Input
Amino acid sequence: MKTYRVGVIGVGGVSSLHTDAYMALPNTELVAAADVSEAALARFTEKYGIKNVYTDYRNMLEVEKLDIVSVPTGAHVRCEIVLAVAEHGIHALIEKPVAIDLAEADRMIAACEKAGTKLAVNHQRRCDAQYRRAKQLVNEGAIGELRLIRAMGVEAGFDMTNNGTHLFDAVRIFGEDAKWGWASVTTKGREITAGDVTWADRKATSQKEALVAGDRVSAVFSFQNGARGFFESGREGVFGVELVGTKGRLVCVDGSGGPYRYPLAIWAHNDPPGEWKPIEVPSDELNQHGLGRWLCARMITELIQSIETGEEHPSSGYQGRAALELIMAIYESQKQGKKVQLPLANREHPLKTL
Output
């Protein structure tokens, strides 16, 4: 069994999800890390014992003979990093969203295609047993013909761009490719204007991690398989999707909310007297090497499998770009005031020229 040499670029925030997984998996060896902060690197070395650290990731890529690099940075710097990683012939696992806009995502995917490297986006639901079981049930016709996919659990603005990429990717697990989208984006009850557009990130700094506008979003998507997707911004106490078919419904959610409680499981509603019933998902598939359900071990394992087989990763750059495109379609529809066709002709962020 080959051991894959791994480096991490950006050791703050969610990087521990990546590093903990690499340290636990038997066929990966975490050998180096890079970050612009010397203090962050010192903490990383103290925690993981990794002494090969760099304040310039380019030096790490030059010096270390790496097979895989994780990039858990903000989206505002991710494109440049992935282009450099691909140039060195290294495979990449990146955080979400894949990029600031579709133009950057296109460049990243093209660079990896040219280099023959794999690009995976950390949308874990693509590799999660719950969603795979739900997809299997839908494909088997357990709820009849899939007609509606309701997405729930994120606010407008930065939350939609950041956590929302998980949600819209989950929608695409069942709807697959979208044909068109229509949306309304408002702030304080009025249509957004150029004056409402701002750069933001989770820390409300000037890092320009996401270009956003509006405090309320309503959106409809039409998918190639005949299903329609509906999204209304707001937390609602749950995060996930409701699947409505001609013979029943399935719900895949991460939290809980009234009047039914949904604890990390699939629930079905299709038999008299109309009660919600949990669907068993094998527990051994929800954890890998004891790392927990939402961590990266399975994503990394399937990245290695895709490297060795040449197959597309379940959460590839293509899938990550398509999830981002649904969000860009929301803003593009609001900008044009009409339904927009997908794939979008405009690859730049629609809010740049609102």
